Amino acid sequence: MGIGKNTITGETKIPLHIALIMDGNGRWAKKRLLPRSVGHKNGMERMIGLMEHAFDLGVEYMTVYALSTENLRRPKEELEGLFNLIRNHFKEYMGRVCARGVRLRIVGDVSLLPEDVQQILRESEEETAKYEGKGINIALAYGARNEIVQAVNRAIERGEKVTEESFASLLYTAETPDPDLIIRTGKEVRLSNFLLYQAAYAELYFSDKMFPEFSDKELEKAIVEYSARTRRFGKTDEQLETKE
Fold it and tell me: What pLDDT is recorded for position 8?
């Protein structure tokens, strides 16, 4: 890989965990007078390509926002198109990435999805359960507020008083470190109920690109900007310099 502007170099700090809000598939298709389902298909293909590139760069965890709880209110035709993508392509595409020794986890309330889709997701998780280390979280029927409420209720049911650490263990992402970098495509500048607890100290990056247009180079651009930022976690620059 050549060295130049927006290109990863040996000096670039690679985030351990990148989370993606994959926005703009439908608008990308609409602009081209194509069905929204075509945009979602292109978005799935782009998602797999970005995962492969991210792992090649040294990223160890990825979480992708594929379907929110709010998205479940979309027209039935569009939802059925999304479910058909899972039925027809999910195992093949995810198998390609997970063959690198990457463990797959589905995060969200999958009980809200059709039974046959749930079965595909469960089988895909089980097929990668043997892997340790690198991981992918696919957020489906996911909403951060719902995730937090469910975690609170589990703690109440157990009669537990929680700490930050124990509460994090009750979330869908319990086995994944918090994201270092959250990228959102599609021109919107908000988190949209995504990883609200986990995002406390994540760096945020917003792109005007629709998700199918978000190339490997655009991912590198986001990582380079992340690398240039100073993550203080509430400390001063002087404390960081002296490692206090």
Answer: 81
180: nearest Cα among 226, 228, 128: 226
Phi and psi dihedrals of 225, rounded to 5? -65, -40
pLDDT at 7: 74
Q: Could you read off the pLDDT of 177-215 as tens digits, one per residue? A: 999 999 999 999 999 999 999 999 999 999 999 999 999
Residue 184: CATH number of its domain = 3.40.1180.10
Catalytic: which of 6, 23, 84, 153?
23
Inside any domain, residue 125? yes
CA–CA separation, 173 and 17 (whole Å): 12
Number of domains within the chain: 1
Could you count the other beta carbons within 10 Å of the beta carbon of residue 139? 27
84 is catalytic: no
23 included as an active-site residue = yes
Q: What is the pLDDT of residues 8-46, one digit of tens each?
A: 888 999 999 999 999 999 999 999 999 999 999 999 999
**Looking at the domain assignment, is residue 109 inside a domain?**
yes
Q: Given 25, 42, 71, 116, which residue is catalytic?
A: 71
Report helix, strand or coil for 104: strand
| Domain containing residue 89 | 23-143+179-226
The reply to whether 148 falls in a domain is: no
pTM of model > 0.85: yes
Does some domain include residue 161?
Answer: no
Cα–Cα–Cα angle for 73, 76, 79, nearest 5°?
80
3-state secondary structure of 107: strand
